[in-house]
Amino acid sequence: MCGVRVNPHLNHPFHPQHLLTLLPKSPYKGRWSCDFCRRRPSSGFVYHCDPCKFDLHINCALLQSSIAPNFPTSLHQHPLFFIQDHNDEVNRDCSGCMKPLSGPIYHFSDCSLSDEFFNLHKQCAELPLEINHPYDRRKHPLTLLPKPPTHLHNCSCYLCKIQWEGFVYSCSFCKIELTLDDFFSPQTITNASHEHPWTLLSRQRSFVCDFCGTTGDRTPYICAICDLLVHKNCISLPRNILITRHHHVISHSYSLPQQDELCRICYEEVDTRYGSYHCSASDCNYIAHVHCATDKAVWDGKSIPEDYDERSMVALDESINWITDVVEQMSFGENTVAVEIKHAYHDHNLRLTFSGEMNVDGQCDGCMRPISTPFYSCEQSKCSACRRNGNPWDMAYRCTKRCDFTLDLQCATLPLTTWYKYDRHPLTLTCTDDSDPSQHYCDLCEHERDPNDWFYYCAECDNSLHSKCALGDIPFLKIGSNIDKPPFNCHPHPLTIVKNIWDCPPCKFCGEVCNGQALQCKESECNFSIHWFCPAIFPRFSNSNE
Q1: Cα maximum dimension of the chain
Q2: What digits encode the pLDDT tens for the residues 466-512?
Q3: Cross-referenced SUPFAM superfamilies, in alphabetical order (predicted)?
Q4: In the 8-state DSSP scheme, what is residue 63?
Q5: Choice between 264 and 69, residue whose per-residue pLDDT is larger
Q6: What are the backbone angles phi and psi of residue 352, rounded to the nearest 5°?
Q7: Rounded Cα–Cα distance for residues 481 and 448 (Å)
């Protein structure tokens, strides 16, 4: 703001009804947003109109703008302001092409119309109102409309499928509608990934894209030499990518031998007559749908260069070892053991412990199972570099052999064995129970067991435990760990994972005592304790912040 004169009062074209007053911050204590850019700042000067509850960030208020003359009322009934440079203040989509705003823009907002917020790229604002386009074979002119015509609720046309909301060119006689994306599509596209140019086929026709295997119903691009039809977006598919689900580079191909394959991401069938991503390593048969492999959940959007060295990628894969350095080794006969290491997930060195005093409630920071010798531990006091927490419902494991067997992450990572303090032997994870129904009880809580649910069992002592009883309510979280963001925003303070034995406090949600593992606020005089799952079961209380 240096060198810019700031007036205490401003007559602004975005709000001509009243004079705006400069304030050090917005007078509203709750959430508010600038009526131009609609962003919510944490602080800063604003120009304010109290009767209209109208605010402008000071940066937005000082933007240079002018009224756009002769803008067609068929596209917008109110006058628009032309802004040559909005300094990236407006982080919204164009109301015409529905793509992010950039460069010069046309803008309208009205404090009396809370939902009226209209922005256009300069290119979209200056489109011709009528065009002749080869897509309409009857050669009718197409008329520019500010929004798609009203369709029946069960319509399955192109616009309804993609849920288009912006400008369209329309012919009401032929029932033809052209999005701005279609209108701006070039007649020819050349891409380094294909040796021939692609030509736009301006026809309303159904096709299966040869590059991704999904259907389209209009304006494909064609390579007449290779006899290929593809979506416009698929032309730029990267040749080689690296995804989180596989340790080799996978490559796009549309000419694999026809065979029965399952996508290794969604485990649905892959039609190898069309494009897919596959692993070219000699001993690997990994394959994935194009839309699965390029999903942002598994791919970072970066392509691997054509001249990449496969050996370097193998070396990269082999280097993914969480032990980053061996500080000290010790020999035991012919065996050499690393007794001090550096670990990727910890700031301090870890030393190998063979025996000695152990906390009976000690847990491994990797798998959260009870610790047993030998193990690596940090000798630094008050160390919490590895404490973290995950949601076991975010992903699942599924059988790859065409059956419906599926496990969520919580069940898939259940330990195969565990210990019960009243049994000398380890208890084994058991999937079925053919014993007499009268024996279907848990030896710890003494409540009935469902014979179809997995449980832990000792055959020698005939002890059976619910998996929850054997492992605790939250077996994969470390006792003493802090959760900075409590589940479902159930409490304003961080919560600590505790294990209650005596003087168990009641749960703030269900009222039952928090015996065993629970979440507890350590703030003085807060007295807040809950079971781990209660915020999900009683969501109406989750925002009470008791």
Answers
A1: 91
A2: 888 888 766 666 778 888 877 777 888 888 888 776 778 888 888 88
A3: Cysteine-rich domain (SSF57889)
A4: S
A5: 264
A6: -80, 130
A7: 32
Let me know if 205 is exposed, middle or buried by CB neighbors in 10 A (0-12, 13-18, 19+). exposed
> Is the separation of the CB atoms in 200 and 187 below 8 Å?
yes
Query: Which CATH fold topology does 9-62 show?
Result: Wheat Germ Agglutinin (Isolectin 2); domain 1 (3.30.60)
Helix, strand, coil percentages for the chain (3-state, nearest 5) = 10, 30, 60
Strand order in the sheet with 81-83: 66-67, 81-83, 105-110, 113-121
Write the CB contacts of 459 (distance below 8 Å, at least 6 apart in sequence).
428
* CA-based torsion, 448, 452, 457, 461: positive or negative: positive
Reference 175, options 130, 138, 128, 219; nearest CA is: 138
CA torsion sign, 297 to 302 to 303 to 309?
A: negative
Question: In this structure, how many other beta carbons lie within 10 angstroms of the beta carbon of residue 76?
Answer: 18
CA-CA distance, 105 to 424, in Å (whole number)?
75
User: What SS3 state is found at 107?
Assistant: strand
- Which residue intervals of 239-344 are DSSP H helices? 290-293, 310-318
Q: What is the DSSP letter of 187?
A: S
Average pLDDT (162-169) is: 80
Q: What phi and psi values does residue 57 have, to the nearest 5 degrees?
A: -55, 150
Architecture in CATH of 417-471: 2-Layer Sandwich (3.30)
Query: In terms of DSSP bridges, do strands 516-520 and 529-530 run parallel, antiparallel, or are they unpaired?
Result: antiparallel
* Amino acid, single-letter form, for residue 478: K
Residue among 343, 321, 339 at smallest CA distance from 329: 339
Q: What is the per-residue pLDDT across 131-160, written as a single tens digit (0 to 9) for each?
A: 887 666 677 888 888 887 777 677 666 666
> Is the separation of the CB atoms in 237 and 274 below 8 Å?
no
| Reported pTM | 0.51
